[in-house]
Specification:
Blueprint lengths: L5 H5 L4 H4 L6 H21 L13 H5 L11 H12 L21 H13 L10 H17 L13 E5 L2 H20 L7 E6 L5 H8 L7 E4 L11 H13 L3 E8 L11 H10 L3 E5 L24 E5 H4 L7 E5 L2 H8 L9 H5 L18 H35 L4 E3 L7 E6 L11 H18 L5 E5 L2 E7 L7 H20 L2
Parallel strand pairs: 2-3, 2-4, 4-5, 5-6
Antiparallel strand pairs: 1-7, 6-7, 8-9, 9-11, 10-11
Length: about 500
Amino acid sequence: MGSLNTDDILDGQFAGDCLQKPLDPDEFRRHGHMVVDFIADYYKDINKYPVRSQVEPGYLRKRLPEAAPNHPEPITDILRDVTNHIVPGITHWMSPNYYAYFPSSGSTAAFLGEMLSTGFNVVGFNWMSSPAATELESIVMDWLAKLLHLPSQFLFSGGGGGVLQGTTCEAILCTLSASRDQALTRLGRNHIGRLAVYGSDQTHCAVQKAAQIAGINPSNFRAVPTRREDAFALTGESLRLSVEKDIAAGLTPIFVCATVGTTSSTAVDRLLEIADVAKEYGMWLHVDAAYAGSACICPEFRHFIDGVEGADSFSFNAHKWFFNNLDCCCMWVKRPEALVAALSTNPEYLKNRATESRQVVDYKDWQIALSRRFRALKMWMVLRGYGVANLRNYLRAHVRMAKLFEGLLRLDCRFEIVVPRYFSTVCFRLLPPRCGERDVDEKRTNELNQQMLESMNAEGKVYMTHAVIGGVYVIRFAAGGTLTEERHVREAWAVVKEHAGKVMASG
């Protein structure tokens, strides 16, 4: 074959490959229907798959070619390979038998909203780049703030406002950066080594990571110890002791993260007490309700965020337990100007009359990245497609499932509920038989529960994860999957009993 030249291409010699349209409406319609059918069938059959992927590391490289194809391949072949090669390597977060970490509660409305967002493919970094993206987000965030009964200062009408971040990690980094810059404006930029950041030993590792990224000296991050008698909550007293010790050592406390529903045990920090300490020492208080914030739209759970009026910022993940798919973190601040001061840049190529009028929100200045997705569409569709009353009932149903599982555990003397259940997550463990009044051998008990958990997960019928709280290895049962029903909970209990019997019998 001779060498390729420009005339060959212009003459159409390779038109079948080089000139294929990447976005043809008719082809999109046909392929789109095929993919929707594929996903619908996946959900219909999801109960048949092992919940946790059973593949070994490196499995996929052995199955796929070493290089990308040179010519187009039909969508039917690609979807067949998804079934044969990709699906076996998926841990099925949407399975009704998924109880690990925290739920990933997608929904039809969120899925369709994501399709619209992807279809429009706007890059809504400022108002001018897509006015609807900015304005819908501002409206939806005010709707949510009102559902949560957040103080009026968190609404746009009250001088604050909300933004949809990707994850809690981003929300914490943004607010910590604002807190850092406020402190350095007061102290001087050369004093960054004096700044101290606080959480508890149950606080998500995102806070420590954010502190590192923001330039806080790693030795100035404080994981304040919690106690079992306080249900592993961060208390005002323990925070105050840590802060006063640091001040005496010449440090400047700037930021504290309080959690409503910690990752390990769903503990609830004492917001009212922590807010008092934060106010006294001029610290930015961020309330991380990534998991449990969703439940607080229900009046019976709203008290868990009492004290949020003393916070500077608040966030929860709608992709955890609010029927949105990943990613969708709702964050509010009382003083958006603090975020803008820390995160904004204004190059010539982004200048426009709307921004200069100061009558619009440019969300690029409320986040780490410049580009951003039209996330508000899926949140808007979830709120409209299900309605507040139904959303509350869905959440309550998940809590009832957790109560059911907790009750079944309590009826079996082999098990212990390790920490209080506040929401839809149960932390439990299997206890070995006792001889008289002999204390539990914690090391052996931890090993026993680790063995039981791995045995359950390897079987594939359910998937749960663990935590170590106060030295105790616990198994976490996190209800809240969109497809989970009471019958699945009872089936999960049967699996737990079966594997408890097996590990007991094995010694």
